Amino acid sequence: MSVERHRAQEENVGAYLLSALTEIEERAFEKHLEDCPICQDEVDRLRPAVHALPRSIDPVNPPKALKTSLMATVKADAREAAEEARRHSMTRRLRERISGLNDALTGMRPGVAWVAASIVLLTGVLAGASGLYAISDVSSGDDRLQSETVAAKVDKTRVPNGSGSLVVPADARDGAVLRVHGLPTLENDSVYQVWLKRGSEVISQSTFTVGEDGEGAAAVTDNLESADAVMITRERAPRAKAPTENAILRVRL
Amino acid sequence: MNQKDDIQNLADEEMMHLVQEGNPRAFELLYDRHGGPAFSLAYRMVGDRVTAEDVSQEAFLSIWRSKARYQADRGSVRTWVLGIVHHRAIDALRRNLVHDKRRSSAEGIEERFEAKETTPGEAARREEARSVRSALEELPDEQTRVIELAYFGGFSHSQIADMLEMPIGTVKGRMRLGLDKLRRSLAGVAA
C-alpha cells in the first residue's frame, strides 16, 4: 500500500462513517480498509460518535398500525414457512411410498398392479387437504400438458394502475413468464427486479423495464416447484442482491 | 414461567438468535424494544410520517426475511437496527421519494407527534437525547452542519460541498474533525 493511496483514502474516514461517500467511493474505501490498519483503527475510533448521533433525537411514537402491519406479515411468513415444511415432508413421504410400491408391483399381474397403485395414491390424496398439491409432481395425464395463468396481487397504493399475471407452463420446473401492465416507467438508474420466494429464501430471477405503455415481461428461470411466490420490487440498476422494499406485485403459488 | 415470559427476559443478543430462526414472538420483542428509536430516526431523516413508516417497515422486514446476521462485536442490537434504518432512509432520500417533504420541519412536526414522557424508558431516552445534543452543540457550527447534513439529511459529501459552496476536502475534513470532537466530548475527554 502506497503512502499516497493511504493519504487519498484517509480523508474519507468521516464521510465513510456518515454514509456520505458515493457507492463507488465507498467500495474503494472498504477495499482500502482491508489492507490498512491505520484507517481501520481510525474507523473504529470514530464509530462511537456516529453511533451516538441517532441518540440525539427526541423519541417520536410510531403509529400503532406499523406494528400491526409488520406482525401480520411476519406471522403470515411464519405460517407459510410451516406449511412449506409440511408440504416438503408430505411429498417426501409420498415419494418413499411410491418407491416402495414400484418394488412391490414388480412381478404382479397388470390389473392387480393398477388397483394396488390406485389405493396407495388415494391414501396420499386423503392424507391432508394440501395432499393434492403435494403429489401434483407425480400425477400424470393431460393436465400436465397445459399452462396455468395466475393473477398477481398488486400494491395499489404504490402502483395504482398496475396488474400482472404469471404464466406457468405444464411443467413448473421450466420456470415461468411474468407479464405486467400499467407499471410506471422508472428512472434510468432503476429497474424492476423479479424474485422467487421459497421458504425463507428470496432468489433473484431477472430484471426488466417497461415501455411508455407500462407493459413488460420477465422470465422466472428457477424451478417453481415448492416456491411460495414470485414478486417484483423496484431496485437500483443493474440489480440488487436482496429486495430493498416490500413487493409491489406478488403472485402466490 | 411460560414461554412468553421466557422470551421477554432474554438479552437482545439471545433474542436475535430466535429472530434468525424465524420466531415471530422474538421478532415482536425486537420491534417492541427498538421500533420506537428506529421510527424516530427514520422520521427525523425523511420528515414525514408516511415515508418514515415505510422506511421502518422495510428495515424490520429486511431483518426478518433476510435473517440478517447480527454481529455482537460490531455494537449493540439497537445500534445495528438503527444502522439498517439509516441506510434505508438514505436510500429513500436519494431516490427522491420524499422530495420537498424532506426535513421540511424537524421541529414543527415533531412537536405534534413526539412521545409523551409516560414511561421511565422514554424519559431516559429524552434525557439521553439532551445529553448527546449538548455534546453536538459544543462543536463548531460548521462541523455540526456537515455532520447533520450527511447523517440526517442523507446528502453526499459532494452535495454538501455544493450547498455550502466549499471544497470537498474541507467538507470531509470537517466531518472527521467533528466526529473526533464529538467522540471526545461523549467520552468526557477534553477536546
Protein described:
The complex is a heterodimer of chains A (253) and B (191). With 253 residues, chain A is an alpha+beta fold. Chain A has three domains: 3-56, Arc Repressor Mutant, subunit A; 64-139; 148-252, Sandwich (Immunoglobulin-like), CATH 2.60.40. Chain A contains seven helices and nine strands. A five-stranded antiparallel beta sheet of chain A has the order 2-9-8-5-6, with no helix packed on it. Chain A has a four-stranded antiparallel beta sheet with strand order 1-3-4-7, with no helix packed on it. In chain A, helix 5 packs antiparallel against helix 6 (110-126). Chain B is an all-alpha fold. Chain B folds into two domains: 1-114, Rna Polymerase Sigma Factor, Chain: A (Orthogonal Bundle), CATH 1.10.1740.10; 121-191, Arc Repressor Mutant, subunit A. In chain B, 72% of the residues lie in helices and 0% in strands. Chain B contains ten helices and no strands. In chain B, helix 2 (12-20) crosses helix 3, helix 4 (49-66) crosses helix 5 (77-94) and helix 8 (141-151) packs across helix 10 (168-186). The longest helix of chain B is centred in the N-terminal third of the chain and has 23 residues, at 24-46. Chains A and B meet through helix 2, helix 4 and helix 5 of A and helix 3, helix 4, helix 5, helix 7 and helix 8 of B.
Distance between the termini of chain A: 52 Å
State the CATH architecture of the largest domain in chain A.
Sandwich
CATH topology of the largest domain in chain B: Rna Polymerase Sigma Factor, Chain: A
Q: What is the level 1 CATH name of the largest domain in chain B?
A: Mainly Alpha
Rounded mean pLDDT score of chain A: 80
Largest sheet properties of chain A = 5 strands, antiparallel
Question: What is the molecular shape of chain A?
Answer: elongated
What characteristic shape of chain B results from the CA principal axes? globular
